[in-house]
Specification:
434 Repressor (Amino-terminal Domain), 3 domains, alpha/beta, single chain, four-stranded parallel beta sheet, Rossmann fold, six-stranded parallel beta sheet, 12 strands
C-alpha cells in the first residue's frame, strides 16, 4: 500500500472507527490492550506514518527543538549535544542541529531555519565572530523559548547554563603556581565573549592571590585554535624574559602550544608546563597527556534542556528573571603540568 496511509485506512482494514484507531495510537486509557495491539500491528503492516504536521497544528507543539553550536568538530559541543538529546528523547522531543562555523551569518541562518521548522524552543552556544546580537533579540520577539549554554551574553536576559570559568581559570593557574612554575603565561580567547574574559580574570586573580607580577607581554590574545597556540608560543619565545608555563584558554590552543614547544625542543613539563580548559577527548592521548579542566558537558546539556523545557511548558507570561545555572569545573591534572 502507498506510504500515505491514513487513520481511516487502518479503520477500514480493522472494520472499526477512525476515532478508535486514533485513541489506540495515542495510548488512550479507554482502549483495551487487545484493540491497541491490533491497531499497532495493522499500522505497521500498512506502513502507516503519522502526520506530524497535522499533529503539531492540533497540539500547538512540534516536539522539535533546535540546537545551534559553533562547530561539530569540537568534542565539547558534541558531548553537550549528547546530554541534550538523551533528555530530550525522554520527553518526546527530536533535536535539529545546526552549526554556525563560528560565523554570525550562519548563526542567523540557523536561527531562521529553526523558526521555519516551527521548533518549540532553541538552545544556542554563540559563535566567536558574533558581536551584534540583533538576531537573538528577533528570536525573543517571536516568543520562541531561547536558552544559551557555555557562550552566553547576559545583556540579552536569556536563561543560560555555564561553567564557572573564573573559578576554573583560577584553579588552573594556581595549579601551575603550586607546581613551582614562576612565570606563567596565558593564551586568551576573544574578549567580547564573556567566558573567555572570565578565564582571563581568573588567571589574573590567581597571580594576584599569590603575589606574582602581572606582565601583559605574556598574555597573548587571539583566536581559539591550534594555530593560535603555536603563534602564542612563538611570541613568548621572542621575549627577553620568557615564561616557563602557560594556561591556555582551551584545549586546542593548548595543543598548538605543545606542538610549538616540541618544535623548539623544549621539554614538557620539565622546562615548560601546559594546562588547557575543556577536557577534549584527545587530551589524554597526547604525549605528554594534557592537563585541563573538565566542563561537565553532559550535565550542561541536560541542564540546558531542562531550562528550555521549563520555558516551553511555562503557564504564565509574566516577566520572570531568567535562571542561570553555574556548574563547577573539575580539575583533570595530567603529565603536561607535572613539574618534577
Amino acid at each position: 500500500m502507498a506510504s500515505n496511509v491514513t487513520i481511516t485506512d487502518i479503520a477500514k482494514e480493522l472494520n472499526t472507527t477512525p476515532a478508535t484507531v486514533s485513541r489506540a495510537l495515542n495510548n488512550h486509557p479507554s482502549i483495551s490492550e487487545e484493540t491497541r495491539t491490533r491497531v499497532l500491528e495493522a499500522a505497521k503492516r500498512l506502513n502507516y506514518r503519522p502526520n506530524t504536521i497535522a499533529s503539531s497544528l492540533r497540539s500547538g507543539k512540534s516536539h522539535l527543538i533546535g540546537v545551534l553550536i559553533p562547530s561539530a568538530k569540537i568534542n565539547f559541543f558534541g558531548s553537550v549535544v549528547h546530554g541534550i538529546e538523551s533528555l530530550a528523547s525522554q520527553h518526546g522531543y527530536n533535536v535539529l542541529i545546526y552549526q554556525s562555523n563560528e560565523k554570525r551569518e550562519f548563526e542567523q541562518k540557523g536561527l531562521q531555519a529553526f523558526l521555519n521548522a516551527r521548533v518549540d524552543g532553541i538552545l544556542v552556544s554563540m559563535a566567536k565572530e558574533t558581536h551584534d546580537y540583533t538576531h537573538f533579540r528577533e528570536v525573543k520577539a517571536t516568543g520562541t523559548p531561547l536558552v544559551f549554554f557555555d557562550r552566553v551574553n547576559d545583556d540579552l536576559n536569556v536563561p543560560s547554563v555555564v561553567i564557572d570559568d573564573y573559578k576554573g581559570a583560577f584553579c588552573a593557574t594556581e595549579h601551575l603556581i603550586k607546581k613551582g612554575y614562576q612565570r606563567i603565561a596565558h593564551i586568551a580567547g576573544p574578549q567580547h565573549i564573556k567566558l573567555f574574559n572570565n578565564r582571563l580574570r581568573g588567571y589574573l586573580g590567581a597571580l594576584q592571590a599569590y603575589n606574582l607580577p602581572i606582565d601583559f607581554n605574556i598574555i597573548y590574545t587571539g583566536d581559539i585554535s591550534i594555530e593560535a597556540g603555536k603563534r602564542a608560543v612563538e611570541h613568548f619565545l621572542t621575549l627577553e624574559k620568557k615564561p616557563d608555563a602557560v594556561f591556555s584558554v582551551e584545549d586546542f590552543t593548548a595543543l598548538g602550544a605543545m606542538k610549538a614547544l616540541k618544535e623548539h625542543d623544549i621539554s614538557i613539563p620539565d622546562q615548560f608546563g601546559v594546562i588547557g580548559f575543556a577536557n577534549e577527548e584527545f587530551g589524554e592521548h597526547t604525549t605528554p597527556s594534557l592537563s585541563t579542566l573538565d566542563q561537565q558537558t553532559v550535565a550542561m546539556g541536560e541542564a540546558a534542556f531542562k531550562l528550555l523545557f521549563e520555558q516551553i511548558n511555562m503557564k504564565t507570561s509574566e516577566n520572570m528573571q531568567p535562571r542561570k545555572i553555574v556548574l563547577d569545573p573539575i580539575p583533570v591534572f595530567r603529565q603536561s603540568s607535572a613539574h618534577p
